Model the fold of this input.
Amino acid sequence: MKDRLRQNTMGLMQVPGLSGHEDRVRRDIRMRLDEMGVQSKTDRLGNLVAHFPGEGPSVMLFAHMDQLGFIVRKIEADGLIRLERLGGVPERALAAQEVLICVGEGRDVRGVIANKSHHATTPDEKYRVVPYPELYVDVGMTSAEAVHAAGIRIGTPVVYAPQAVALGQNRILGTSVDDRAACAVLLELARVLKGRAAGPPVHLAFTVLEEFNLRGAQPLAQALQPDIAIQLDLMLATDTPDMAARGDMVLGGGPGMSLYSFHGRGTLNGVIPHPAMVDLFERTAEAQGIPLQRSAQVGVLTDLSYVQLVGQGVASIDMGFPMRYSHSARELCDLNDLAALTRLLDAALAQIGPDFSLERDDYT
Done:
């Protein structure tokens, strides 16, 4: 299983899929599902879902396919390109990053976000974070005509140049670990669900537009009307010096469960999980001998915050894996956490039967 998780995670990390432009990722995932003999469908927005019949409360188990990045805003006469941010791109991590301008498969153009030459940097500039409107991308072309001839237009999607690197025996470093690692977990679960003998109805979904204000999963949930929603995403690893005060989430320490999330700015939303889901995962983790880490964070948000409000309300929880360096061009995860998360989800789903209670008073 770990080898498949490694292969699928690293493979998906190398497929560009800016939010709103996930089609290449969706086609890649669909191909991997087809190879397993798992049928899937795509809705109008581009969400991909595979249905596994069963008995009991229906479960929507999902992770987002898209990644953050940029949109071409302006092409200068000298061929330099200005960008607009899409998603929570950290400006302090942009200078000198390589990017991929996604014109089309086989035609994508590589470039670099310019960093002013050190020899010409003034003392006042040395410690200044350059705002993204002042940044530009150099693609090695000397005119707007050459840029247009390469297929680049205003509105063309741009992502960090895709990379996936094995770091040590069990860790993966690169672009879009958020949330391609969770997509790899879903692929592994699809393999398990295809061969199971019993269990609840499961809608296994790969969603779009999460990095663009959490838009894609909500209409899918409205169509599916699940009783339970389990969302998979990163959880902030806090085992580095700069993060030590934020929590107790250790890379390689096992899967995580969010007990509280709130964005705190902009989109004022978040998730407090349903007690039935907390009880389910705590009991299952203990029975399986899987260490389960706990997270409570402000500044974190997933599209579960909207899915939980569909219909009469959905029993919801955010589950995930520890990850370092979120939203930068190099994110880091541990395969052992992905494997343990897969086992935990498989065992938890098996506990959801026709008599599984979603009554809060049974748990509080």
User: Anything to note?
Assistant: The chain has a mean pLDDT of 95. The helical segments are 2-13, 23-36, 144-149, 177-194, 217-224, 275-288, 304-307, 335-350. The chain has two domains: 2-67+163-362, 77-156.
